[in-house]
Design brief:
Length: about 100
């Protein structure tokens, strides 16, 4: 069963002008990971520094492996720094409600 992971990012007001380019580079790494299915990014119309990344993974295990990789020196990225620590992750699974 696929997993949808939603990453809510609020870039710092003083984030560098190229912050979105840096986020894009992080997403390029994400897209190359095993089990990755898709990713979309949406921007808040009232706050252009508020981005939401919607990722779909083949399974919870694939997403877990990705998150574990991100916690290593090799997988570390600057999203937390660009957002001043204001990054929230919520994971969802499909339901038959």
């Amino acid at each position: 069963m696929t997993i949808t992971s939603v990453l809510d990012i609020r870039l710092r007001p003083d984030a560098p002008a190229d912050a979105e380019t840096r986020v894009s580079a992080v997403l390029a790494q994400t897209r190359a990971r095993p089990g990755f299915v898709s990713a979309d990014v949406v921007r808040d119309v009232d706050d252009p520094r508020h981005l939401v990344v919607i990722e779909v993974w083949e399974s919870l295990e694939a997403d877990d492996a990705y998150r574990a990789w991100r916690a290593t020196p090799e997988g570390a990225n600057e999203l937390g720094e660009l957002a001043g620590g204001r990054v929230a992750l919520t994971r969802y699974e499909a339901t038959t409600i």
